[in-house]
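To the wet lab folks,

You asked to see what we're planning to order before we commit. Fair enough. Below is the target structure as tokens, and below that is the sequence we designed to fit it. If anything looks off to you, flag it before the synthesis order goes out.
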């Protein structure tokens, strides 16, 4: 069901819209969590390390899919809020065509350069074969990833956060069952968890695309709708490219950090792989809620209801902090039991690494969650320069500090880079939102 985000009390509208988004990203993360959980418990610690090692490279491709999602979603939100439905449909088809071409290029490059990327991050020899196998199967499913992200971006732009939730709840639950089936019954090892994700994500993608096309068909417009528009691609690109760069450079930064971590051996890699999955579940959830704030801001910008945008920022901050409390407490005090979901008879190095990582980062979830809500406002209103400054500040600090502090304090120094980068970047994003001149900003 399409929803107009330009009417109603902002806090109530955001809660109603964003809670299914939060549920969706929890189930989305279950894909990766299930892979690591099954690999760690049913195959072994090296299998967990291999999946986690490949995961950092898959984030590069996810960055492009995410950028296409955001670029399409923000522009479609603005056009939907402005009731410009004909242009909105052109934006959807333009984004789909451009994303499909980009996906094929990335797929080819990934399959050609996968081994070189794994060597670049100093993948241990004993992990190379399984890491490359997992990465290649992931790349075969890249079209599903791209078009699913486009579909969910359109659903969000139309104010519908429930339909993607239903798809993900079903497919991610099925993924866990298929993971276990392929690994335990068919003895497929790391390949089993990769093919399970490929199969379940593919089904989810096809269903999402079919439903979104039917939803768009029901919105009637006068006259023919152009399938592709270069000016529209430019509008989408002004949002998508900075978002792609943001996520890509974060992924590159994570790969550099992964290279530093790999120097400490399989035990530390496995502990980090387990803990970072838990951390990414939280941060990605906040990112998704920030994307919901982006849709809210974009629709209200399109409708020229500027007061509601700042009200949405305040409501969004309260919303993410309500989620921060139980998550931070659980990670800080119950981290050992959460890590044991991934680690069967873990080595002391793996368990110590995971616990230290979670206890250092979890208190700072309150800071990074506010940054991601602020980023949602900046992105939804087209303030991409400010958005990029905050993002790159966080990234550069984390990469530089990880390398520097690891030389002084070992692997613990690497984990300290996260809260420092988050805190400084949060301050910058808050300043940018506070000084944002909405009355001078037209629809992108």
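Sequence we intend to order:
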């Amino acid at each position: 069901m399409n929803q107009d985000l330009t009417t109603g009390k902002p806090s109530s509208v955001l809660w109603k819209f964003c809670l299914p988004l939060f549920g969706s990203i929890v189930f989305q993360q279950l894909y990766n969590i299930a892979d690591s959980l099954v690999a760690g418990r049913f195959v072994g610690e090296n299998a967990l390390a291999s999946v986690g090692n490949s995961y950092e490279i898959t984030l590069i491709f996810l960055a492009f899919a995410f950028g296409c999602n955001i670029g399409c979603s923000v522009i479609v939100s603005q056009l939907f809020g402005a009731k410009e439905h004909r242009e909105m449909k052109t934006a959807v088809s333009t984004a789909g065509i451009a994303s499909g071409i980009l996906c094929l290029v990335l797929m080819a490059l990934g399959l050609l350069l996968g081994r070189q990327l794994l060597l670049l991050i100093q993948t241990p020899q004993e992990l190379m074969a399984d890491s490359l196998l997992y990465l290649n199967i992931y790349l075969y499913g890249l079209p599903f990833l791209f078009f699913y992200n486009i579909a969910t971006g359109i659903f969000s732009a139309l104010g519908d956060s429930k339909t993607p939730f239903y798809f993900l709840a079903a497919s991610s639950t099925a993924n866990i069952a298929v993971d276990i089936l392929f690994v335990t019954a068919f003895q497929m090892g790391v390949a089993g968890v990769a093919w399970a994700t490929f199969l379940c994500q593919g089904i989810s993608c096809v269903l999402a695309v079919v439903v979104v096309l039917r939803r768009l068909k029901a919105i009637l417009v006068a006259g023919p709708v152009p399938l592709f528009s270069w000016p529209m691609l430019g509008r989408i690109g002004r949002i998508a490219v900075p978002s792609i760069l943001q996520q890509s450079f974060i992924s590159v930064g994570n790969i550099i950090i992964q290279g530093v971590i790999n120097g400490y051996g399989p035990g530390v890699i496995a502990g980090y792989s387990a803990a970072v999955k838990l951390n990414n579940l939280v941060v990605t959830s906040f990112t998704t809620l920030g994307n919901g704030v982006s849709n809210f801001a974009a629709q209200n910008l399109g409708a020229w209801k500027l007061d509601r945008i700042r009200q949405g920022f305040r409501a969004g901050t309260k919303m993410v902090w309500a989620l921060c409390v139980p998550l931070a407490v659980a990670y800080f005090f119950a981290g050992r039991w959460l890590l044991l979901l991934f680690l069967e008879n873990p080595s002391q190095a793996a368990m110590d690494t995971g616990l230290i990582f979670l206890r250092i980062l979890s208190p700072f979830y309150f800071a990074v969650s506010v940054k991601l809500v602020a980023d949602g406002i900046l992105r939804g209103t087209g303030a991409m320069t400010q958005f990029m400054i905050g993002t790159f500040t966080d990234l550069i600090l984390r990469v530089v500090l990880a390398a520097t502090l690891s030389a002084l304090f070992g692997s613990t120094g690497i984990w300290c880079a996260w809260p420092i980068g988050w805190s400084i970047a949060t301050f910058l994003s808050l300043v940018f939102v506070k000084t944002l001149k909405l009355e001078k900003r037209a629809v992108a």
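Structural context that might help your review: The CA atoms of residues 40 and 343 lie 5 Å apart. Confidence is low (pLDDT under 50) at residues 440-444.

Thanks,
Computational group
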